[in-house]
Amino acid sequence: MEWNFLAVLRDFDLLMLGLVNTLKVTGLALLFGVPLGLALALSRLSTFRILSGIAGFIVEFFRTTPPLVQLFWFFFALPILIDVRMTPLIAAVVTFSIQSSAFFAEIFRGGILSIDKGQWEGAKAIGMTYGQCQRRIILPQAIKRMIPAFMERSIELLKTTTLVSTVAYTDLMFQANELAQKTFRPLEVYTIVAAIYFVLIFLFSQLSIAIEHRLAKSGEGTVR
Amino acid sequence: MSEILRIENLHKSFGDLEVLKGIDLTVQSGETVVLLGSSGSGKSTMLRCLNFMETPTEGRIHLNGELIGTERGGRMRYREAELCALRARIGMVFQHFNLFPHKTVLENVMEGQVIVLGRGKPEAQDKAMAQLDRVGLAEKAAEYPARLSGGQKQRVAIARALAMDPEVMLFDEVTSALDPELVGEVLKTIRQLAEDGMTMLCVTHELGFAYHVANRVLFLHEGTILEQGEPQSILKAPATDRMSEFLEGHSLFKLPD
Questions:
Q1: Residue A100 located in a structural domain
Q2: Does B88 contact A126 at a Cβ distance shorter than 8 Å?
């Protein structure tokens, strides 16, 4: 067995295209998933029973079903039910937006509930409405506490997006499979792909640690 | 003196537990009323009903002659927007300060003015600095609350409430969480407010404060006002056994005169 990276590096632009698509799916899923997660969390915390019940069901459903099943459902099953043309990208973004919103909802909910009741009272006592309390007083403090869990979940999301290769979306994993078949060099291809994921996620988690330490300095963080 | 607050037949229950069993009280403008009573007597609940931190189960509250809420089907109904507007007119200070830790002292005192009253930032800042100066903390304006002592935090909380130009101030055991040597500075601040003519209701365990600052002392017991009167008479010669016991319990270990 001899290592030969040259054959793989010749087609490195294929992998780069895959990486861009992986980042695209992850970025779009975050873009839609985070606000949706906040909406689900606020609904679940609502005193309006029907609303909190529905939000609770959505969150639990998407947390307890495998992401691959969800992806296949949106890609193959949904177009049978309603008249939509699913592209792999749309299916991937829809699946991972909703799936990660369920997890983000729980992070938001935990963050909001962790804020001392006195903060609500202090804000309410100067005449703030529920929305003003939430926006100005509770969420800014809750979000600081959420950052580690939020980063963790985003990394999970990035890793889970490898599943989209199964519906023929040209992400990094899909391109790797193609390249492995083309070059007959799976060992080198998957080694390089693993290294790309490692560097990407390692940088991301270093960034997350740096943010946590900055927050700790202002006395609001989770690191002491 | 004119009437500023009138409470009629105030009841409050939490589930099966009836905490307030019919309170009637009229407070005159500029008056300092101290509420005494053992824990569970309902004094904090009563205070919290006045700015609707708790919604009364029954009864009417008038502020400056206007009835809060509307009566429909024999019950009082309250709209959230009306209650928010009411809370902006009544200042409240809490045992645990409840300052906003992510905002500076100045921002804490400006927040309600800008967000609730819609004041412009320059005006709110001037007002905030004036109130911080009043409580002796103008030089701490740029600090975060975490850098302040308990007594300083509580004085900032007082400034935050005052900056809203409240018609009435409510103090809910504001010195109970403080180290003993910090109690004095907070009580002095409140006393100064009383002398400036602020109308206030204070729940406290500081009998000395009640004696020297209050115009009237109420003694609550099991959800009703058991006794009330001028502090000099009621604290020296309580009419009921219950209040005598309460006062004795509070002065068991006194330094000899």
A1: yes
A2: yes
Reading across the β-sheet that carries B90-93, which strands appear in turn?
Answer: B90-93, B168-172, B200-203, B32-36, B216-221, B224-229
Domain count, chain A: 1
Q: Read off the tokens for A88.
A: 């792999």
* Cβ-based contacts of B157 with chain A (< 8 Å): 122
Q: Are A215 and A221 in contact (CB under 8 A)?
A: yes
Asked if CATH classification 3.40.50.300 holds for the domain at B3-250, the reply, yes or no, is yes
What is the value of ipTM here, to two decimals?
0.91
Interface test with A, best of B80, B111, B117, B174 (most A CBs within 10 A): B111
| Smallest Cα distance from A161 to chain B, Å | 36
Residues of B in contact with A220 (CB under 8 A): 101-102
Query: What pLDDT does B121 receive?
Result: 95
pTM across the whole model: 0.87
Q: In the beta sheet, which residues pair with residue B67?
A: B62
Residue type, A130: Y
Q: CA Rg, chain A, in Å?
A: 21
Asked whether the predicted pLDDT for residue A3 surpasses 90, the reply is: no
CATH number (domain holding residue A142): 1.10.3720.10
pLDDT average, residue stretch B140-162 = 95
Q: Is A130 on the interface with B (CB under 8 A)?
A: yes
Of B80, B86, B100, the CB nearest to A137: B100
b (16+ CB within 10 A) / e for B86-114: bbbebbbbbbbbbbbbbbbbbbbbbbbbb
Domain encompassing residue A47: 6-217
Please check whether residue A121 touches B, CB under 8 A.
yes
